Amino acid sequence: MTAEEIGTGTVTALVADAVMAPSLHNAQPWRFQHLRGSGILRLYADTSRALPRTDPEGRGLVVGCGAALFNLRVAAAATGLASDARVLPDPYDGALLAELPLRRAGRPDSALAALRGAIGRRHCSRLPYDDVGIPADVCGRLQDAARAEGARLLFPGAWHARLVLELTRDAEDAEAHDPELRAETARWTRAPHAEASDGVTAETFGPRQRLVTAPVRDFEAGRRTSGGVPASFERHPHIALLGTPGDGPADWLRAGQALERVLLRATAEGLVASLTTQPLEWPELRWEVRDPRSAMGYPQMVLRLGYGPEGAASPRRPVREVLEETDRG
After folding, report:
1. Beta carbons within 8 Å of 42's beta carbon, 6+ residues apart
2. Hey, what's the torsion of the CAs at 144, 145, 146, 147, to 10 degrees?
3. Which of 11, 16, 17, 52 is exposed most, by the fewest CB atoms within 10 A?
4. Residue 270: other Cβ atoms inside 10 A
5. For residues 255 and 300, is the Cβ–Cβ distance under 8 A?
6. For residues 26 and 188, is the Cβ–Cβ distance under 8 A?
7. How far is CA 264 from CA 111, 112, 128, 254, 257, in A?
């Protein structure tokens, strides 16, 4: 299979897996370009889908694109293609985040290929989890997954987990008093049974917490639409922090790839997960999230992991809206 023989159907299938990645408010801030002449698939940031009030630096946007890049690598490996990507290949084009060569690999990455089945099963679950432990060997494999992408996954101790929960509450309270931030969140939330191809739908909100014990974003804050009965969440949530040594675009891409590798590994292990960036969206809170005794560097994501019901699937834009085929290149 040469570069010239990679057909539209194969490229479409690769991108269909890539866009299953999580992103801030499910904004899906990516676009892809297939250069048929050179057999290159490019990943660009779609800044028209940025959240300037929630994510002024674009960190969350790039993390989401990094997660899409990892899915692309997994799908390529499962198809027998090379899974190595060049990140930030053009210093004069900041929107071009990565290039993936579409060529047959001498020996496809079997560890990546094995994760492809988890891509379609991974959904954010904002539902209550079982209050049971996660075996140490499972936690170890999740940490190995983050380490394989150059990041670090930390399971904080009891005091640190309580601090993260308190910081999440502080961030939610700050958001409640910021009209612009509330309006931006509202623009990306969808009413019950709405036809949507992006955003956070009411079916994925999850119930309100009777007592706030888990770091789960309340997308209905101040405008209740579901009318559901509050639910009891696990009293001792399993929180993990994902961090990187640095805090620039290359690190954000690294964090996104590590995040998705951890999430797919967790799905394969029978775990469910939800994500929050709320305490990381406020500079005065973000540094407090980090354990000063750790070598994590910069926290990039707060994960909640556990055993419980799978969440509903979030909507996705069709591939034709995000993929451009061109003979240039």
Report:
1. 32, 33, 34, 35, 96, 98, 99, 100
2. 40
3. 52
4. 8
5. yes
6. yes
7. 12, 10, 20, 16, 11
In angstroms, what CA-CA distances link 22 with 2, 52, 79, 125? Answer: 31, 18, 22, 12
What is the mean pLDDT for each group of 10 consecutive residues in the chain (329 residues)?
Answer: 68 98 98 93 98 97 98 97 95 97 90 97 96 97 98 94 94 93 95 93 91 87 62 94 96 98 98 96 92 83 97 96 87
Q: Quick one: tokens of 181?
A: 């931030």
pTM above 0.90, yes or no: yes
Q: What is the pLDDT of residue 119?
A: 98
Contact 74, 115 (CB under 8 A): yes
Q: 98 and 71 in contact (C-beta within 8 Å)?
A: no
- Alpha-carbon distance values, 255 to 60, 209, 286 (Å): 10, 29, 15
User: What pLDDT does residue 7 have?
Assistant: 87
Which is nearest to 250 in space by CA: 188, 297, 204? 297
Distance CA 308, CA 270 (A): 9
Sorted by sequence, the CB contacts under 8 Å of residue 63 that are 6+ apart come out as 24, 252, 253, 255, 256, 259, 300, 301
Q: 3-state secondary structure string, the chain?
A: CCHHHCCHHHHHHHHHHHCCCCCHHHCCCEEEEEECCCCEEEEEECHHHCCCCCCCCCHHHHHHHHHHHHHHHHHHHHCCECCCCEECCCCCCCCEEEEEECCECCCCCHHHHCCHHHHCCCCECCCCCCCCCCCHHHHHHHHHHHHHCCCEEECCCHHHHHHHHHHHHHHHHHHHCCHHHHHHHHHCEECCCCCCCCCEEHHHCCCCECCCCCCCCCCCCCCCCCCCCCECCCCCCEEEEEEECCCCHHHHHHHHHHHHHHHHHHHHCCCEEEEECHHHCCHHHHHHHCCCCCCCCEEEEEEEEECCCCCCCCCCCCHHHHEEEECCC
Whole-number pLDDT of residue 329: 55
